[in-house]
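User:
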Amino acid sequence: MREFKTTLIIVIGFLLILFLYFKFAGPISLSVQSIQTTKSTIFSVSGTGKTTGIPDTALMSIGVTKTASTITNAQNQTNTAANKIIQDLKNLGIEEKNIQTTDYSVNPQYDYNGGEQNITGYTVSQTLEIKITPIDVANKAIDVSTADGANLVNGITFTFNDKTKKDLENKARAEAVKMAKEKADSIAKATGIRLGKIVDVQETNNLIEPRPMMVGDVASEAKSANTQLQPGENSITSNITISYETY
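Assistant: Predicted structure:
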């Protein structure tokens, strides 16, 4: 009986201690740490697509340079020739917005005889940048310009108009994506990895231009006969990198 009373007193005392603790110290805080783990990794693969087309636009730089004893005379000669060139280019159907003056300069000419520096005349130059579509008009543009007094032809670059370029880029991009996906599937089957969703796509484009025609090329053709430009082909390349989750 005494042992029962002793046990009862101990239990009551313990419960009293708990009551006092919760009353004055507050509840016991419990924390649970949540840890998330994943076994997924990133797998990247690249594909390349290439499309080729015949350029439909020519970019050329044509200039006039004249030297005279006075600035006024040099300017008059240069301006007369440049204005004639611009008008005849318009007559070929080239829009005014595609004819732009990119340089106009006046430079003195010096004579250093006798150890003194004397101005003997002035050289005035004007350079026009011309965008021409279709390319066959570029042949006539060179012939007309040189006949009107153009003595600077700084080079010709063949390219695509905006619509053609966009179409070719889309085709190259589609081919690059297809190649990248096929490569990813092939590697996954060979290695046993399981592809998840695509998490990233990156693209780089390269426009491969043929060698531009330089001054000597055009000048020699223009003097001997009607100019015949050969645009060849341009290629647009799209490089696509696709990243997958794998499990």
